[in-house]
């Protein structure tokens, strides 16, 4: 039964609505098959494990043998060393601390908020550039280009190089999704080539910024001399790649899932149009209701761990199904209802514990600005197909295309 449920999670046929499967999973909070991962699906157990130092995120601790069908994608890295996302303390803590010093509080509390005017301009430009209002692909024309442009501005990529950066991001993003129709060898070759070109470009840019630093984040990372010393070039490259891929992919899905949910809830969309500040609670409820990251695979037990009376042996692989925990009726009343007025929305949509989403402040702001401006400027928006076609990826869930129409675009 458990194996059948795991296959259902991975089955593309269920991508548009995986929540009935998660409901079935929650009947047994710790699911396990003899040769598969332990699957945790209830809110309090997931939250506890996210704070448990006995659970490792380091891909080097994953057992071999292929028992976890998502382990390969979870541990996949380029020739770069692992980013801090895939490390445990103390390595994780050092690199995250060094990166956060130039991204958020307490050392750089205004980094994200200071980008607000620029983000607003990017959003406005993309909406101005939407094509035929009778047939808009919101992913291709808005949700996809917006976050990668923001990452370029954050890192300080020269404007004339942004198009190349977008191309590399497109290739790397596509590599995250299974593609049963593509030639694996050719696809892999293209991914490796994009990684090499991106790596060489960033390495050159890092050296330039060490000699002539600006006020961008890459310059500050390249020239930092804090308590942990400077980052090596390889650490800088893996951190920049993390900001690009993780920061881009999750935000694309958050914005697209958000617009899809609003179009399915026109009363909330109308409220947002009249009250832009409602974007803040809307985004928090979206992170609970339709999180861009559905589950965290590739976790390893460093010791025996007991969860709800079940002993998970040392060395076992775990999946933490965040999206299932977010719909747990033991934690949230009427969990399958989208309710931006929900009084207590401590969701798992951005993780928790030491690996909580590093880019959360930026992702939240991007989604708030994007959804409030789309609500304000699109006249009578409506879905052209529901459900839309989804990405193949079972971990990073979101529509591959979101085709909508509207009667016009307000200035």
UniProtKB/TrEMBL annotation:
Feature: compositional bias, Low complexity: 69-83
UniProt KW keywords: Heme, Iron, Metal-binding, Monooxygenase, Oxidoreductase
UniProt keyword annotation of Transcription present: no
Domain of life: Bacteria
Secretion signal, residue range per the UniProt entry: none
UniProt region (Disordered), positions on chain: 60-89
Entry's Gene Ontology molecular function annotations: heme binding; iron ion binding; monooxygenase activity; oxidoreductase activity, acting on paired donors, with incorporation or reduction of molecular oxygen
Protein family membership: Belongs to the cytochrome P450 family.
Name of protein: Cytochrome P450
Organism of origin: Streptomyces nymphaeiformis
